[in-house]
Batch of 3 targets.
Target 1
Amino acid sequence: MEVMARKTAASDRLVPIKRSNSSKCPSVGGSDTAAADRKREAPAPVLPEGGVAADVEMDVGKQGKKATTAARPPVGLKRDENGQPKVLQQLETVDADEQYGSQERALCEFLKLHPMLSLRVPHSNPYLSPVSHASAPRRESTSHTTMQLVANLVDKASIPTRTLEIVPKSHDDSMLRPANVAIGERACVLAERCICVWMARWRYGPETNMAFVGAEFLLPSEQKTFVETGKLPATHGKCLVCSRYMHTYIYRAARSDPSFRADERIPLQAYGNSMGHAVGEDFPTHTSVVSDADGYRPEAMLFVDETWSDSAAARSSMGTYLWRPVVKFYAPHYRYVITPEDDRPRLVQVGVGMDEEAERRFVQRFREPALATAKPRSAPRDSSTGQPSSVQT
């Protein structure tokens, strides 16, 4: 019995010899045996004890897991009882300003093509059996398909950006007023075509006293130079509201027109009035603080989606829109009020600041405009002479 057990153990350790296909030893009458050798399948991968199969696409096994993308963005950030967002957020999906598109799909295809940090699967994967190189699946990171995907990604990644000055919300609030000519400030270069004028006329009527030409918008560095030396920029600029309007106008024109050229002069209009021309390369001019105490909410910013990055305009200096947050123009974000000190109209921003309590206190410093009263009806006139009729109704 002991001898039989040793023979059985020895036979279990025998490895079948692979039949050679050499032409020097043709098989006579053994066509069935040769056909069986050709149909012989490759050995299954050997797994270590307690191990699991790797996510590798193999010729002899099932295909690896397929990457999935998010179908929609999340609902929004969670806020506490005071309406403030929490410092640490746990979001399982993409942010509200992100979308999965062609770039993410290309990256997923690239990652599925080969495992990262491995030049060749048969040499680097410990879960594959030591089969011959001829029958082993080739998944090289230097293959033609892989390098072509890398080349396509690099071709789409060259987007120039510019360094812009960061402007807090408190500075913007101080510029939403008429110019103080007594100290040397300049009004908006658009004068009577200023958005502050026409927005008030559309709200309160053409004869309203709430219309005013906004002060020329100065960046914090330019404002500091003006206070210290009294010097203004060499180029007469626009007010903050007109500047935001043009930022939004230019971007949406570039986003809706694939043939948009950043170096072309674009005619601008607002409320039926011509506002001159603008060049896309001049925008954006500055960036704003977001999600901070003295900053704006994310929903108040101009939304720039990733699909626009494939256009020619995004490859110019306008590509800065992709990386620098810019406040969009939205008329309901502005409210006309009266300054108690001099009874002059001005604008305040509502519903855009991160610090809602500070925004509410700032708005309460001003008076609401009085409601417009109806004009008295004129006396009827005679149709033939044009004089007031003696018959009153």
Note: The chain is about 25% helix and 5% strand.
Target 2
Amino acid sequence: MPSPVSGGTRPCPGHGPRSCRGRAASAGGLIAWNSGSPAQGSPRPTEPARTIAKAALAGEPAAAASLDAYVDRLARGLAVIADILDPDAIVLGGGMSNVEALYERLPAAIGSYAFSDVFTTPVRKAAHGDSSGVRGAAWLWPLEPGP
């Protein structure tokens, strides 16, 4: 199974000494990567993920490198899921689902880690964007109080 980061693992705050995929796939993962670590050189100021993504798309080198690393880490995790489950589609939710560049870049990146030589699974945005999880949870709430 591919590591969430190339070259091995990195500590995950709150989850122990090994990297975790949840952290790597979140906006917090992009922010932490962009802020720098001892392995990446001097730290940069912490910026919101949306700001980092916009700067990357505008060609700012450090932000572009951070977004590239984020796409790579996310692709590594999704490739494992795709190899095991063979989904008809991969649907992204949460705040990072608003970064349109992910839908262009992820299929090829996932394909580079997938077991098969051909990867055709589409990557799509959740119908309700970053509110999809909250909407789904609200539908689970009972309308009538139970006995």
Note: Helices lie at 21-25, 27-35, 49-57, 61-85, 101-113, 132-140.
Target 3
Amino acid sequence: MAAGGGDHSLVVANRELWSFGDGFYGQLGHDDNANQKLPKKVEALSKHRIEMIAAGGFHSLVVADGELFTFGKGDFGQLGHGSFSHQALPKKVEAMTSKRIEAITAGWEYSLVLAGGELFSFGANDSGQLGHGDYQNYAVPKKVEWFSGKHIMLMSAGGFHSLVLADDELFSFGSSSYGQLGHGDQQQQNLPKKIDRFMKKRIEMIAAGGYHSLVVADGELWSFGNGLSGQLGHNDRESQSLPKKVECMNGKRIEMISAGGNHSLLLANGDLWSFGNGRFGQLGHNNLEDQLVPKKVEAFAGKYVQGIAAGLLHSFALVDGELYSFGNGGSGRLGHGDEQDQASPKKITAFDGKLILMRRPMKIVRSYWFPRERTFFDNGFEERDLERGGLVVGICRVWVYHGIMWKGVEDFFFDLVSYFCD
């Protein structure tokens, strides 16, 4: 697992949490404000089993042994501890101790948590990105009442906007300064609003970036929001206030997406593709040029790309079990022992010999023979019975298995995966 934040990075290796990059607000969890140019183990959580991680602008979320811990910048309440102070050591979020954490995601200065089937949000709310119908910051997790009674399947926090898939419908809220909410305008929303363009479509993946959004629906890639650097992939620099299909990816099997500050990553047909702003080399094409359409990262040609993660200005890729980083190297966020930018993927040698499992971000996994859907969260599989009859068609592709599930071994497989994930 790897997560890229604003200027810092988190990695889970050998079931232990490591952090590096900017530590000014304590977001590295080492009880100081020092930067780290090489990965350093977070000793405060060394006796805990790390299950999920998320990196925001300057704060970090970690689920360990079923408990939510946060640390880093807290001046908007994004840590959830009931105060607006920073935290240099991982601290348990007491308000969530009695709840089963299912997924976490961090925006620039806010946090979203899915627990017990309910969505909670806290932190900055200047654009309505918390979804409570107001613009008040919240220092403790608050349930998003609008989703009460709905089955939440996916969620993603961007810079100042949020995407949530509930009951097979995609909702957005928060800032829409570039149309990143997908409603055809630039009007911010402080309550979840359905994106009509995706009605009657099967949504499989979502990713909210700095000011843009990516969605995979019916196997096709759609994008909307800020397009000034080409991060929408439409071969122009125009912003889009309505979802628009990325035509050049038609016919490719999209397996994973990740949205950075102003660049995009996707895994398709086993290859890594990137597009958008390339000023710091975050696209991995050995140059500093913007890319207006998805371009294959040739450095990984012929290799098995297992996972991807985009930070604000940097990127990660897990390839053949080894973790690579590229892009802006400021504050040491790439983990190479220096602050140099990297225009080509470079292996983080500090993790040599360590086991890194890049679990897929939240994704809908549909079964061939069973009238139910499973949502794949960062902590493994969660089975969701949608109470709908008939067959649900889809392809299962996860980090330990590639291919189509077949009747008779499917449940055994999910039990096996759950055993290793939990």
Note: Residues 214 and 223 are 5 Å apart (CA to CA).
